[in-house]
Structures are given as structure tokens and as C-alpha cells.
Amino acid sequence: MLQLLLLRHAKAERGQSGGRDHERRLDERGRRDAPKLGAYIAKHGYAPDQVIVSTAARTRETWSLAAAAMPGKPEVAFDERIYESPPDALLAVLRETDAKMRTLMMVGHNPGMEELVGQLVATGDIETRQRMQEGFPTSALAVIEFALDRWDRVHPQSGRLEHFITPRSIAEPAD
User: Fold this and answer.
1) Which range of residues forms the domain containing residue 162?
2) Which of 10, 80, 118, 166 is deepest in the core (most CB within 10 A)?
3) Does 174 map to a domain?
4) CA quadruple 149, 152, 153, 155: dihedral positive or negative?
5) CATH number for the domain including 127?
């Protein structure tokens, strides 16, 4: 069984006229949401063996803040092929993952992440799938499981959507 965690970067500052999109950083909400997702990932035992992160500043910052809330030190790679890539390119990257890595996390961008989930998922709880189809907001996390033993065997419609989490769907702790 393989598990894929697809995390869209947290909310970023607006692009500045003439500024480079690649260098955009997280805004205040993004800096609050990323650790919240990291804590959720840790609490629910989704410990990635490997993490592949887009080279954009906002994805690096999202990963850094989320990772601080998670135990362990997964193998981390920053890959420019994740930056604003279409789903086929993202699929090609994940297919390169070593089979010994049972849980892979990818931190990237929309629309590629949302479209990749749409391509990979064939089954899963209907309500969860409907929520995911309503949109893939910043800091959204899709957890997909595959009844496969190697990443190079992942193909469209081979996965089951196990969970779809957004910062709003995570209950705030009571005081």
C-alpha cells in the first residue's frame, strides 16, 4: 500500500507588479494555516518518508512551517518541476519515487495539484470527494491511497481518496 499526501501551499501574499511570482512569500493567514496542517498530519499519523517541494518561496515556507509541527525528519527534495506544473508532469515526478518510500508528500500549486487528484482518484467516500471537487483552497491536503507496491505503477484512476482536509475543516481546540 502506498500513500500520497498532496499539500497545496498556504495562502501567499499578492503578486506585485513587476515582481517574480516564484518569490512570493506566505501572508499572515498562510503562516497560521501551515503549522495547523502540520499538526493535523502528525496527529493522524501521516508521517511522510519523503517530501518533494516546489522551489517557490511560498511552498518552501509552507513545508518549513508544517514540518516544524511534525515529528521525524523525512527525506526532502526541492524540485523545480513541481512549480506550477500540469498534472502529467507531477505524476511523472511521483513515479520516480523509490519503492521503499511508502508515504510520499508533495507540496505544490494549483491548478496542478487539484487536477492531479482528479486524475488519480477513482474511489473514496462520496462526501469527501464532493468537498474536494468544490475546490482545492490554499493549505488543502488530499490523502490518496494506492493498492500498489511501487510508485512507477501509479496511473490515472488508481487511487482512493481517503481524506480531504482544509484549515477550515480542522476543529479549533477548545480552551
Assistant:
1) 2-11+23-169
2) 10
3) no
4) positive
5) 3.40.50.1240
Q: How many domains does the chain have?
A: 1
Per-residue pLDDT at 73: 86
Q: Which residues does the chain have with pLDDT short of 50? A: 173-175
pTM exceeding 0.85: yes
Supply 142's cell numbers. 488530499
- Asked, for residue 101, whether it belongs to a domain, the answer is yes
What pLDDT score does 18 carry? 53
3-state secondary structure the chain: CEEEEEEECCCECCCCCCCCHHHCCECHHHHHHHHHHHHHHHHCCCCCCEEEECCCHHHHHHHHHHHHCCCCCCEEEECHHHCCCCHHHHHHHHHCCCCCCCEEEEEECCCHHHHHHHHHEEEECHHHHHHHHCCCCCCCEEEEEECCCCHHHCCCCCEEEEEEECHHHCCCCCC
Please name the amino acid found at residue 12.
A
